[in-house]
Here is the input.
Amino acid sequence: MNILGIESSCDDTSASVLTEDGIKSNIIASQSIHVKFGGVVPELASRAHQTTITQTVEQAIDEANISLDEIDAIAVTQGPGLMGSLLVGLCFAKGLALSKNIPLVGVNHMDAHIYANFIDSNPQFPFVSLTVSGGHTQLVHIKSPFDHEVLGKTRDDAAGEAFDKIGKIFGLPYPAGPLMDKLSKDGDVSFHKFPQALANEGLDFSFSGLKTSALYFAQDKDDEWIKENLNDLCASVSEAITEILIKKLRRAVKKTGVKTIALAGGVSANSMLRTKAEQLAEQMGLSLHIPKLSYCTDNAAMIAITGKMKAELGEFDDLAMKPFASI
Ligand code: KG4
Ligand code: ZN
Here is the structure.
């Protein structure tokens, strides 16, 4: 089965082709326009998707060395995400499906982050996924394909949002997550102890207190001091975020008794989190799956693989399929 995947839920326009031989292309057009605003501006995002979607899909088809007539299904992100952004991908996919008479598969973006783990690997069910992105932070018990139970989630900010907003406090450009990761590598994690909320309580997360704590901490320091101590500050914040994520993942494993864990979403690109997850897996004798870096942040390859898994179960959608902004 050959699948064309299309993703446009936030600020990346992406298209990918998946064949029986695996992912043949995964084109990602990232929008730089948001940098100067320090965050994604929804109206600008949807306009940028409109400008780039046709060439992104064409490029994915060309690079895969396939023709549209050989595509068996179009998988497209249905939600959650920004409504205007989702509409661009969905309308494009519907137009293509209608003109070429190709079946459509609507894909949940959060599911796709999890199933990105099946691109290069084959996690055994049941498993627990720590899904950490810019918009969501969840512990999900994946009992069998598409049979999910959310065990815990953030009560306020997502982990990626915490990286981005605290990075902004330290003067880093949007998105600060990858930069915080890079700077942390030369920093001291014990420079300052930032709070880990709900540490002894259940499987929910909360990152707004950490953000406030970083804001108060930075408030009476001048820019020069922040610059001089940036590596240590980033390392200390990364430590607080990744420690609490791993603590809760450990608790979820104990609660469910699973033998397999997975990381998913943009924050799973974080090197400190990846290392801590490897240590956890070793300590608890678990099988660990983490997508390769280009499949962690938003991409259409994860939409294509999830679309394929749904298509194999006969789960297709029609042209009346509607986007949804939140889960
Ligand atoms: O999954 P994703 O690409 O988009 C959403 O669905 O939200 O995640 C984007 C988030 C951003 O908050 C970004 O700062 C964060 O993932 N991120 C990272 C790293 N790479 C991306 N956070 C920490 N370390 C990284 N290496
Ligand atoms: Zn995402």
Notes: The chain has two domains: 3-114+296-312, 123-290. The chain has a mean pLDDT of 96. Residues 109, 113, 133, 265-266, 298 surround zinc ion (ligand 2) (CB under 6 Å).
